[in-house]
Amino acid sequence: MGITERREREKEEIRNKILDAARDLFAREGYEAVTMRRIAEAIEYSPTTIYNHFEDKDDLVRSLCDGDFGRLLEAMQTQAPPDPVDWIRHLGGAYARFGLSFPNHYRFMFLTTPNIEVHKDHDDFPGHQAFGVLRRAVELAVESGLLRSGSVDVMALHLWIAIHGAVSLLITMRPEHWPVAPPPDLVEQVIENSIRGFLCEPPPEDKR
User: How buried is 22 (Cβ within 10 angstroms: 0-12 exposed, 13-18 middle, 19+ buried)?
Assistant: First the structure.
């Protein structure tokens, strides 16, 4: 490995170290409480080092959002099953596994509120693309007659809210704070019950 390649690798390692420390601090202490100096102290670098990689805290947060939502999008872009309702189930499971496997990422993405506009309006933002994958599955299920007619956007939003709520509680609530112990298949139950609310009713049996 040449000098240039080694320097680039070291630069990338420092950048990732900064991002990991910032994500952890934002998730634990809140966006407003964390300064660039605080991040530098956490990784034992000077603030100047942080500014060599990021223009300011807003730039750092945007980089975190792009990276973390990109990982979520990747987790949801597996091969779609032929049945669109099964695809919805599959996407819900992939979303939950991501959140439960990377709780700090999830806390930062959805449970921390930066005082900037980080969720970009353009279609290239991976967070919008991830929702678009779910929306497409819902759209196909409606077109196939498996889900009742209605607003595809609202249905997709409802399904996301249900699984997001379950994941958020599972990663933030201590076991002793639950009113009853959540079942091991809580995520699967939430997904199934949410889908069931939109399923078309089966045709009545011919009683003749």
Answer: buried
Tokens coding 99: 């959140």
Determine if the pTM surpasses 0.70.
yes
List the structure tokens of 162. 């249900």
| pLDDT tens, per residue, the chain with 208 residues | 677 787 888 889 999 999 999 999 988 888 888 999 999 999 999 999 999 999 999 899 889 988 999 999 999 998 889 999 999 999 999 999 999 999 988 988 888 766 555 555 567 889 899 999 999 999 999 999 999 999 999 999 999 999 999 999 999 999 899 999 999 999 999 999 999 999 997 655 544 3
